[in-house]
Amino acid sequence: MTGSSGPLTNAPGFPALVSPPEADSVIVIGGGLAGLACAAALGERGCRVVLLESRQRLGGRASSFYDTESGEWLDNCQHVSLGCCTNFARFCEQMGIAQFIARESRLTFIGPRGTRHQFASSALPAPLHLAVSFAGLSYLSWSDRVSLARGLKQLARTPSHKLQGVAFDQWLADAGQTPGAIENFWHVVLVSALSETVDRLDAAHARKVFVDAFLSHRAGWEVWLPTVPLDRLYGAELQESLRARGVQLRLNASVQRVQAEPGGVAVQLRDGEQLSAQRVVLAVPAYRVPKLVPQFEPWWRESEGPGRLETAPISSVHLWYDQPLTSDRHVTLVGKTSQWLFNRDQIQPGARTPDGTWYGQVVISASHDVASRPAAETVAKVVAELAEAFPNSPARLVRSRLVTEHRAVLAVWPGHDAYRPGPVTRVPGLFLAGDWIDTGWPSTMEGAVRSGWLAAEAVLRERGTPAQLIAPNLPTARLSKWLLGL
Ligand SMILES: Cc1cc2nc3c(=O)[nH]c(=O)nc-3n(C[C@H](O)[C@H](O)[C@H](O)COP(=O)(O)OP(=O)(O)OC[C@H]3O[C@@H](n4cnc5c(N)ncnc54)[C@H](O)[C@@H]3O)c2cc1C
User: Fold this and answer.
1) For the domain bounded by 64-101+224-229+310-410, which CATH number is listed?
2) Could you tell me if the CB of 361 is within 6 A of ligand 1?
């Protein structure tokens, strides 16, 4: 890998190869989960990897920010993984950070009229392990519950390829789902899992959520939560694991341009430094790719190109109360603007605010409405909903902060999969990673890790040292195969 400020030999503004790249050199651009997974896998297999991240910290969209008012590092949004996310789990194991993840095998739902419901597996095998919990959701009428059971079975038995491109609200209508089941079940689960409302969802992705998380394996639905802030999760241990794999990590290294040439790929940083490598993996959000690689622009703009992909917003409402609002670790609120409440005191042992206030976070996925309204309006609504959910709590709000990530995740609208590219591009030497490439998964930490490993697999194939990096899914239970044809 070479750094130099030698003369440009290419079109103005484009970087050029300053010297022939070293054998097996790879530059990974982007220190989010996709780039981290890719860099670690390639480093472990003997590639000379340089990981360039424009920010001061790793983790990308799964990271923390400094809140000047409270003097605390806060997670941009509570991140949740599920038991079915086998690649994220493997990544955490490999990088020595699995110790910072807690598995939650009990959830609390608060129904639209304030009734509380515990959600946990019974002793029955999958796919019946959650049947008792589902049956106990009394805010669903019996006709809702019957329609739901039928709908789940029909969805699971429909092959995924027949659902691709189908709008999920249309599928729900065709499957005779009741308004109560749609509003208080399908929407509740899917908006959290896919960050989209049912009218904007591809039915194949909806099916995947229910099959992978609820119907295939007992542990698929279990919620995994970091017990430390995201900055810590993707902090010292992770960096040490990268170094141990020979990855050269460069923070504050913002890439301006990437140009592939016959002998390798030239990378120019914003500060003018130039690097070169045999191969480059771009692990940045989709909208940044054509700006970094002008060679991709025509492809991006094609009618079938990735330029058609869209994003969806997620909001988090950070709340400080004068005393604990609840001792629940987390609750799911049904039929409200507030979707999840996370109680940091409980989830992150030892985490305390400097002024002794209680801190909790409400997550609102698919927050299209929130993004277009005044922050005060949303905060007032959330606070009122929490007061209703915890009517006996004397806690009073001290401070709040609303954060909306407008381009939080890839929007999973019907048919969007056709525009997601694979890791191999038309330009030799250039590869793609990121939660938006064609992984079969939605934009999640799991999807990002998968994308990084798909890109690493492609690099290793081209290098002549193929490897299988993607972890298998949880095994499908025998009864699920028999009853649902999974
Ligand atoms: C608010 C919110 C809530 C979410 N909740 C969940 C959740 O509960 N569970 C879940 O699984 N997922 C969740 N996600 C999604 C998850 O965070 C992402 O899918 C995942 O982190 C994406 O990883 P990535 O590596 O593909 O991209 P990113 O994390 O975006 O990483 C890209 C990296 O590239 C860097 N970069 C960009 N341009 C350059 C450049 N020119 N030079 C160098 N570096 C550059 C960026 O700084 C960034 O670090 C959430 C996302 C958001 C925003």
Assistant:
1) 3.90.660.10
2) no
